[in-house]
Amino acid sequence: MIDEFTVAGILHQPPAERTAKNGNRFLTAVLICSRQMATERQRQGNAGKYAEMVEVTVYDQTCMDLLRQCRPGDFVACTGYIHSHQYRRADGSEAWLTTLIAANLSRLDVRSHE
């Protein structure tokens, strides 16, 4: 795969199951990729530090099955490619959304990132 990206982080909330316009099911999840900054932000109340959060989209059935078994707080690694698209917010403004389309997914031992 050209331009392959890998992201590893803590699962922020349970994965959300969605349906594409063509009827195919897929999952989305958000990973917090900077644990220390996320912890500091919660303690310091937005003192200028932000957690790096990455949205991941999974279409592969095997990866979807594994992601469904993951719970918030699990350490997850994904490899895939980046997809960006523009969308219109509810207030009418336009924004860009960038997501990692995962081709491979692994649940890791939390001790491997400490």
Q: What is the count of helical runs?
A: 2
For this structure, the CATH topology is OB fold (Dihydrolipoamide Acetyltransferase, E2P)
User: Quick one: how many beta strands?
Assistant: 6
Q: Give the CA-based shape.
A: globular
CATH homology-level superfamily: Nucleic acid-binding proteins
Largest pleated sheet: 5 strands, mixed, barrel
- The percent of residues in helical segments reads 10-25%
Summed up, the domain count is 1
Mean pLDDT: 83
CATH class: Mainly Beta
Order of helices and strands: EEEHEHEE
Structural account:
This protein has 114 residues and is an alpha+beta fold. The chain has one domain: Beta Barrel (OB fold (Dihydrolipoamide Acetyltransferase, E2P)). Helices cover 17% and strands 47% of the residues. The chain contains 2 helices and 6 strands. The protein has helices at 35-44, 61-69, and strands at residues 5-11, 16-19, 25-32, 53-58, 75-88, 94-108. A 5-stranded mixed β-barrel has the order 1-3-4-6-5. Strand 5 (75-88) and strand 6 form a beta hairpin. It starts with a strand and ends in a 6-residue tail after the last strand. 15% of the residues are buried.
